[in-house]
Design brief:
Blueprint (H helix, E strand, L loop, with lengths): L3 H15 L1 H7 L4 H22 L1 H4 L2 H5 L3 H25 L1 H8 L2 H13 L5 H18 L8 H30 L5 H23 L8 H25 L5 H8 L1 H14 L5 H18 L7
């Protein structure tokens, strides 16, 4: 039986991460601006945490100067992830955008097939088939009435899954090359670099850095601190200490709760067939997640 403490940590982290998409949907700043402040405020929170923990503070220069090359590659992929996902959230809603992003479990397996000559079993193909059928049930009734922007939102959601797969592969390889680098320092590096990349994107797009009011400020602070820092830390601490099956079930709360928040805050309504499609997608993602960790 998994220890209760680590399981509760992963549960709490999944709940916090599930709030990411609603935060993006509720702010009135541009999608790239929301991504910039998530990473900037997240980096500030992580730096403060690292300064407060004595054993981490003593390793400051040793940790600070290591691992930047792989962190830069991971940050580049994560910048693509945020750029795509935030637009998908705006165009198709937090629930579907997050569900599509969690299809990364399948793209991670495809990467393993191509790069590592892995051979997925029947469970993977069963999960993939269920997810595709579920997605079809979710979209078949609404697709004819969708405009071009909404259809692009679907495409961007799937591209988000690909971008996040690149992020995860870069992160894992970089950490395997530098095992002494504390994962919290790695996340700080990625957060800082991603904020720089997102700032460059904002300049190219002509977006403003101005936060229009206190409501947006608090939403962006919560997005950075609760999702980028606290949610990630809870999951990263608890995940290695529980079984893969339980981890997959707990992390499945992220897309499931994102759909719930979409219904609560953005008036999402699903038909009976769409509910069935959602269930099949979640089951498929769960089966695909059993070979590794999923999107956080």
């Amino acid at each position: 039986m998994a220890p209760r403490g680590p399981a509760l940590q992963v549960l709490g982290g999944a709940v916090l991460i599930s709030l990411s998409a609603p935060f993006v949907g509720l702010v009135t700043v541009a999608p790239s601006t929301a991504g910039f402040y998530r990473m900037l405020f997240g980096a500030a929170g992580l730096l403060l945490l690292l300064m407060l923990v004595t054993k981490w503070r003593r390793q400051f220069w040793q940790q600070w100067t290591a691992g930047w090359a792989w962190s830069a590659l991971a940050a580049l992929f994560f910048s693509f992830d945020l750029w795509l996902w935030h637009r998908s959230i705006v165009w198709v809603g937090p629930g579907l955008a997050t569900l599509l992003a969690n299809f990364q479990v399948f793209f991670m397996t495809f990467a393993g097939i191509v790069l590592l000559a892995e051979r997925p079993g029947a469970r993977f193909f069963t999960g993939l088939s269920l997810a595709i059928i579920g997605l079809w049930l979710l979209l078949v009734q609404s697709w004819p009435s969708w405009d071009l922007q909404q259809r692009n939102g679907l495409l961007y959601g799937l591209l988000t899954a690909i971008a996040y797969s690149g992020y995860m592969l870069s992160l894992r390889h970089g950490q395997s090359q530098q095992r002494r680098l504390n994962p919290v320092w790695r996340l700080l590096q990625i957060s800082l670099l991603t904020s720089v990349f997102m700032a460059l994107v904002m300049l190219l797009e002509g977006d403003s850095f101005r936060i229009p009011d206190s409501k947006n400020l608090w939403l962006l602070l919560a997005y950075g601190w609760l999702c980028q820092v606290l949610g990630w830390l809870l999951i990263s601490r608890g995940l290695p200490m529980i079984a893969a099956g339980l981890a997959g079930l707990l992390l499945l709360l992220q897309p499931a709760l994102s759909v719930s928040w979409d219904m609560l805050f953005f008036s999402l309504q699903l038909t009976l067939w769409q509910w069935l499609g959602l269930l099949l997608c979640l089951i498929g993602i769960y089966l695909g997640s059993l070979r590794g960790f999923r999107r956080v």
